[in-house]
Amino acid sequence: MIGTDVNIAIDNLNIGNLVAIPTETVYGLAANGLNETAVLNIFRAKERPFFDPLILHVNSIEKVNDLVTEFDERLKKLADAFWPGPLTLLLPKKDIVPDVVTSGLKQVAVRIPNHKLTLNLLEQLNFPLAAPSANPFGYISPTSAIHVEKQLGKKVSYILDGGNCEIGLESSIVGVEDNQICVYRLGGLSVEQIENVVGRVSLKINTSSNPKAPGQLKSHYAPNKPLYIGNLLALEQQNITKKIICICFGNQPKFITDVKVLNLSKTNNVNEAAKNLFKFLREADELEGEIIITHLLPNTGLGAAINDRLKRAGA
Ligand code: TXA
Ligand code: MG
């Protein structure tokens, strides 16, 4: 069931049920993060492997402190600057956080999301919400309640509808390694914004071999149709006999065949592109056509995270 009633969400979460929640990044598949059985149900519903840990969501720094043993000063500065917002921090966990949440790792991922309904919900709960993106494992993250309904509707007790996600890309994941600030996942907070607060960071955005962020598997975010990245007119030439769907950014190329075009932002606005990206990948999957062609964006601001998702979708 889809609705906007926070009380229904609370009642379900209090008894260990799964509820989909809106955030500014993507929709989450939430359950009581301190209840092992409830957390196991998240993995089951997503068909997600247990080696891929979950983010805990709360509404205040005080509640973060209840979950972690230390808070690095530089990460604290990031929290002060960007929470509530699209930032997830890796911090050493207290014993109260079940191992199944962190896949046995000593650090727990936490964030304060920036969405009115969900902050209101979190304020009324006396536990954090474990919430991965509300998509089947490996598919595109949902940015609207309808996206969740289509794929996980039967597996959740309630979908809290908070409209379309404002940012449209998952949170950026940041932690400390060898006393260095590291970014493990490019996301809704740009590297430039992070560096403005804490100075140079190292990027550890490895794909499948990075044990720090096991969710960063290469096949993530994949639509069902094959997706090719490159020069659009050249890709059209190479696939001239196929029915093509194009996802582009800015100037639209002049195709010679009947290509269906979805433009992420006609005005070259990367934030608009981020908001449209997952919705368009889903649309491209549903439209009549055999292949999707696209190109990379300028690698600055959210462009870097968009390119990361496109490359994973193309793998
Ligand atoms: O924007 C977001 O972050 C959304 C919304 C719902 O908050 N959530 C999200 O969750 O994208 P998920 O599960 O799809 O991605 C979380 C990723 C994991 O795949 C993993 O790479 C990383 O966060 N992660 C979680 N806990 C970790 C930990 N303890 N150590 C290292 N990486 C961790
Ligand atoms: Mg995900």
The proportion of residues forming helix, as a percent range, comes to 25-40%
Overall pLDDT level: 95
Number of domains: 2
Oligomer state equals: single chain
Bound molecules: threonylcarbamoyladenylate, magnesium ion
Strand order of the largest sheet: 1-8-2-3-7-4-6-5-9-10-11
User: Which class best fits the helix and strand makeup?
Assistant: alpha/beta
Low-pLDDT residue intervals, each spanning 5 or more residues: none
The proportion of residues in beta strands is 15-25%
Number of strands: 15
**CATH superfamily annotation of the largest domain:** DHBP synthase
Shape assignment: globular
Annotation field: number of helices: 11
Radius of gyration: 19 Å
For the record, what CATH class of the largest domain applies? Alpha Beta
| SSE run | EHEEHEHHEHEHEHEEEHEEHEEHEH
How far the N terminus sits from the C terminus, by CA atoms, comes to 34 Å
Biggest β-sheet description? 11 strands, mixed
